[in-house]
Amino acid sequence: MPEPTPIRILVADDQQDIIDALRLLLIDEGYEVSPARSPAEALERLEAADFDLALLDLNYTRDTTSGQEGFDLMERIRALDSTLPVLVMTAWSSVASAVEAMRRGARDYIEKPWDDEKVLATIGTQIELRRAVRRSQRLQEANTRLQRGATPAFIGETAAMREIRQTIERIAPSDASVLITGEHGTGKEVVAAWVHARSDRRGKPLVTMNAGGLAEGIAESELFGHVKGAFTDARVDRIGCFEMADEGTLFLDEIANMPVRLQAKLLRVLQTGEVQRVGSSRLRYVNTRVLSATNADLQDEIAAGRFREDLLYRVNTVVIHLPPLRERRDDVEPLARHFLVHYAGRYRKPLVSFDADALSMLRDHSWPGNVRELAHAVERAVLMADPAASSVASRVLGLQRPRSAQESVAPSDLSLEDAERIFIEKVLARHNGDVRLAAQQLGMSRSALYRRLQQYGIRS
């Protein structure tokens, strides 16, 4: 599996004690911190690597309080990456400089001495907003590919998959809402893309939103949009996913994790077709087909008071259930060959097959991560294969044969990080991949667990 990409934060300040304090705070939350003691060093780091956020002091020369060094650095950063969120740090007596920095493009400011919880909340909000921007960019690219006919491959010849394909062909031309269920990694996004591509809306956008992956306030803005001034970072009007998908299709993934208050607003839109942006009194009509997906049992969620029963009846006109890969083992080899062709082409490798031992290992593996895990295993094998090899060997697949009790690894032989990763994986498996329930058992917030998942490369 490819190494996960950490959330990287640049911290620029001329005082080492400030850098050390922030590094300890942020590393403990799973962030990767890159320090800089001067504007020149900060620019060097920004030119050498990608960052998710920059935290900058405004003054770097002793006895200087104008903030001009910070303003100049911000201008250079905007020239390098205009989408990078910049937070500025300032003493309480220099708030005027921070306000000027925000006028010049900073997203927010932090007063020294700071409150740890406020710093983490501000950083978390900005990183989530940046992810939302990136998702929008990826959606635009995906929509372009879909409109050119590049629908994701639907691989599977078992009876269950043939029935799903027939169902899609029957219901796709309608405007019926579709609920796609199944474990994580079974291909719910692929089914949504197929429904859209075979509908009368195929020339219009397919917009995807992770309904449970954002904080409630940000999720509402993502879904319905906002107007300028609706909240601190609302500097311009922004349309939400419903308006982006007007005349097209909106795919709401992990709908079971949507906050209950937001479920009520979603229900109103589904009933009336009217969207109200955050901070606005104006209603806008949208003609959007909604597809949704979950790995949770929604009847259990309703019984626990976490999901609205009336919303379920709005989203489940048609239910398509995707079986886990372990229940359709005859599809493993065709899927693996499909991914081999794809990744061999991407990485320019002459691989055309799997050797006998590799095929045996693929068939015997339990695939708890389903099709997504299989795709990552094949991608890793392609990357690790001998450049001149024509077939994938079992040693590069990265899969483990089932261990006997005598072969189990003792906890004392594990690093702290490996032990934490294994424990998180077990808790996730216990809750069938439900991040919310796993976070509750682990005693951490859902956002903190998502950061751990990204840090360890765990696919929820």
Major β-sheet profile:
5 strands, parallel
Strand order of the largest sheet: 2-1-3-4-5
- Outline type: globular
The quaternary organization reads as: single chain
Report how far apart the termini are: 14 Å
* Overall pLDDT confidence: 82
C-alpha Rg, in Å? 24 Å
In terms of topology, how is this protein built?
Blueprint: E1 8-12, H1 16-27, E2 32-36, H2 39-48, E3 53-57, H3 68-80, E4 86-91, H4 95-103, E5 108-112, H5 116-147, H6 159-171, E6 178-181, H7 188-197, E7 206-210, H8 216-224, E8 225-226, E9 238-239, H9 241-244, E10 249-253, H10 260-272, E11 274-276, E12 283-285, E13 289-294, H11 298-303, H12 309-315, E14 318-321, H13 332-346, E15 353-354, H14 356-364, H15 370-384, E16 391-392, H16 416-430, H17 435-442, H18 446-456
Parallel strand pairs: 1-2, 1-3, 3-4, 4-5, 6-13, 6-14, 7-10, 10-13, 15-16
Antiparallel strand pairs: 8-9, 11-12
Helix pairs in contact: 2-3, 13-15, 16-17, 17-18
Detailed description of the structure:
The protein has 460 residues and is of the alpha/beta class. It has helices at 16-27, 39-48, 68-80, 95-103, 116-147, 159-171, 188-197, 216-224, 241-244, 260-272, 298-303, 309-315, 332-346, 356-364, 370-384, 416-430, 435-442, 446-456; strands at residues 8-12, 32-36, 53-57, 86-91, 108-112, 178-181, 206-210, 225-226, 238-239, 249-253, 274-276, 283-285, 289-294, 318-321, 353-354, 391-392. It has a five-stranded parallel β-sheet, with helices on both faces. A five-stranded parallel β-sheet has the order 7-10-13-6-14. Helix 17 packs across helix 18 (446-456). The two termini are 14 Å apart.
